[in-house]
């Protein structure tokens, strides 16, 4: 079981991954629903 420091590192890595995905299309504007869908897709993909 990861400790609090390891969990924080994992969370930061996930946010970095999401930032990189969003930066691939710098001119795109995301709605809240699109961001939610992106995050859900990332999470469910990471769990597989």
Mean pLDDT: 91
Instruction: Tell me the domain tally.
Output: 1
Distance linking N and C termini: 19 Å
Helix content: over 70%
Topology order in helix (H) and strand (E) letters = HH
Count of helical segments?
Answer: 2
Biggest sheet features:
none
Radius of gyration: 13 Å
Q: Segments where pLDDT lies below 50 for 5+ residues? A: none
Structural class per helix/strand content? Answer: mainly alpha
Instruction: Give the total of beta strands.
Output: 0
Overall 3D shape? elongated
Tags for this entry?
48 residues; elongated; mainly alpha
Explain the overall architecture.
The chain is an all-alpha fold. It has one domain. It contains two helices and no strands.
Quick take:
This protein has helices at residues 4-23, 32-47. The chain has 48 residues and is an all-alpha fold.
Task: Please outline the helices and strands.
Blueprint: H1 4-23, H2 32-47
